[in-house]
Design a protein that fits this description.
alpha/beta; Rossmann fold; Protein-Tyrosine Phosphatase, Chain A; 3 domains; six-stranded mixed beta sheet
Amino acid sequence: MNAELFEQPVAVLGLGASGEAAARLLREEGAVVTVLDTADRVALRNRADRLERLGIRVVTGPEAIEDRTPFRRAVLSPGIDPSLPLVRGFVERRVEMIGELELAATLCKCPMIAITGTNGKTTTTELVAAMLETAGVQSVAGGNIGTAFSALVGQSGGLDVVTLEVSSFQLEAIRTFHPRIAAWLNFSPDHLDRYRSMDEYRAAKLRIFENQTEEDWAVINLRDLREGRVSPPRARTLTFSALIEGGDFSLRDAVIHFGGEPVLAMADTQLRGAHNAENLMAALGIGRAWGLDFSSMLPGLVGYRPQAHRCERIRETGGVLWVNDSKATNLDSVAQALRSETRPVVLIAGGKDKGFDYLPLRELVATRCRAVVLIGEMAARIGRDWSGTVSCVPAAGLAEAVDTAVRIARRGDVVLLSPGTSSFDMFRDYQDRGDRFRRLVLELPDTP
């Protein structure tokens, strides 16, 4: 990185996990750092105290917007919307700005694998990390999952590669970010509360390929490539699809094939559904691009266990299976969850209004769901969108939704929490929502 970055005061905008990691990394590099966040000091107290002990200045609340320190450069945390007054003030003052992803990538001492997509990023990133570990490749996973990239830079000199989940928010502010292998999993409506259009959202994600060369690799969903959601990149390309033929990786009779030859049976893994088959294909493509053979890749993929909140089977009582898919924060993820179920579904959906309607799911819901229980800001809109196709029952909160599902569900049904939107209107995050759902389900009386 240009040494001038550390010769003038540097601002970090946002004191979430990424902001804290960026501030620490900058301080380790010798920069004079100030962190600005408009949230109340009480909410940020622990992080602020930790940074101040390192000699990092922290400004919170309204004072963050009013601060007029003559910063030359700023690092933008991915969770901070560029349209907010805090960021606009820096833009108006023409302060040079980069994202946390760009900061970490510039200082990283090993190659990078980057994975993006509307859905499946976390699962695929974890699959790749497990695959590389069992194949003897020294790697760690981070970025939009678990540990911020800036917190991994210090150990990057001892790694073969770092594996990153990257979001559109992170990609917005890149300049030179250059993954040796970039994976595009899929694309569907999301984050329209931040982006003005689907084209703007798509453009942010496409930046993952921006700095790749002919020596790099791109692993791409074939359907998105054929339908024009992705333009052919400069990098060498491997394609995959569980839904259409013609990709390097394909799914036939529940077996993943490469070039027509069987590679991995879905039954040998802990994952189910076409969407997870594509996650596995993407991981296999990344491994092949890295130079691994399939025999070294398979043990890690077969041994992988999915995280909670992703079609997590909680329990079965009274012949009803309860499934926690709280991670489903957009329509495509709900569709994938519904298609994965072969039994009638009582769906619990709704949450924060993210700016899109639920009409695209109308037909699928009509064919897969016995009834829908609706919660959160989106309840009324979803009810209107699905009116006349399925019984939609509003609930005041998640506890009432579970009680309602108990009354509606019949033996042989699945009660599926798959909200289709984020949780911030009612919960801290999707994990908080899923944990609450799990507790409520586990508290239900046993029924033979």
